[in-house]
Design goal:
The structure is a single chain. By secondary structure, this protein is α/β, with parallel strands linked by helices. The chain folds into two domains: about 200 residues, Aminopeptidase, CATH 3.40.630; about 55 residues. The strands form two sheets. Strands 1-3-2-4-7-5-6-8-13-12 form a ten-stranded mixed β-sheet. A three-stranded antiparallel β-sheet has the order 9-10-11, with no helix packed on it. Strand 10 and strand 11 form a beta hairpin.
């Protein structure tokens, strides 16, 4: 675990990257931000979490770190011990956790439950969508209070790393670590969402979409877009699955997960 602390005093804000070793976007964003030698208005902690998995270019060494929280100092796995140490470093802080995905190219955010922190911060991030995970957050870092997770783009891409950097800057502006952007500041890249208003659409996960063992998988619907009853959703070795009822796909991809295609969600409304 690599830790940077900027500013004077005890940080109440933190950024975490590369919880998964096959998602280098977080590390790259943190290193780019630290190298810029920013003038911070309040202290902040930045953590590159799973250095060992990064070095090995694997998702994890023993178990998925983002399913191992709160961890155990006496765990038999590397990630179990690391989860405990990371929670200790983040205690009492408002946290941004950087990830990437195989399902969606543009950034979006996830929280355990929409609350005061996500309502205050998410409309200031360059995202269009916020997902409330609820019971599906078990073992994930967003179980930690005041934590926002962002999927910054497609795993392993340059765009995900660039998006992650600008998401860090937006989060730190929203939490008072950096001054608010002013006219003439460098703008984030065009790959990030532009909204006419600071409005974020909120979804809540309802259920997993199971995936049977097969050689070939396909998906026929787009994430965050309404699926009507009877619409074909996905296929495994040519066997198609259709929607029983209306839902919105989230984190849906052919090969992102071993045993599920992704999640079915309900659209709740918007944050502004």
């Amino acid at each position: 675990m690599r830790i940077y602390e900027l500013g004077e005093g005890t940080p109440e804000v933190a950024v975490v990257g590369s919880v998964h070793g096959d998602e280098p976007c977080g590390e790259r964003a943190i290193e780019r931000f630290v190298a810029s030698d920013p003038d911070v208005e309040r202290p902040v902690k930045l953590i590159v979490a799973n250095e060992e998995a990064l070095a090995a270019d694997v998702r994890y060494l023993d178990e998925d770190l983002n399913r191992a929280f709160p961890g155990d100092p006496n765990a038999t796995t590397h990630e179990g011990r690391l989860a405990h140490d990371l929670v200790r470093e983040l205690r009492g802080k408002t946290v941004l956790s950087l990830h990437s995905t195989q399902s969606y190219a543009e950034p979006f955010a996830l929280v355990d439950e929409v609350g005061a922190v996500s309502r205050a911060i998410c409309p200031h991030l360059p995202i269009e969508y916020l997902v409330e995970t609820g019971s599906f957050a078990g073992g994930r870092l967003i179980d930690h209070a005041h934590t926002i997770e962002v999927e910054t783009g497609l795993q392993g891409t340059e765009e995900a790393a660039t998006n992650a950097y600008w998401l860090v800057r937006a989060f730190l502006s929203a939490t008072g670590v950096l001054p608010a952007p002013i006219e003439g500041d460098v703008e984030p890249p065009l790959s990030l969402p532009r909204r006419e208003e600071d409005e974020v659409t909120v979804f809540r996960l309802l259920d997993q979409i199971p995936k049977d063992p097969a050689e070939d998988y396909r998906v026929f619907v787009d994430n965050f877009q309404r699926v009507a009853p009877g619409d074909p959703v996905a296929a495994a070795d040519g066997e198609s699955y259709s929607a029983d009822s209306e839902f919105y796909p989230v984190l849906l991809s052919a090969y992102g997960y071993e045993d599920v295609f992704g999640y079915a969600a309900d659209r709740l409304g918007t944050l502004a």
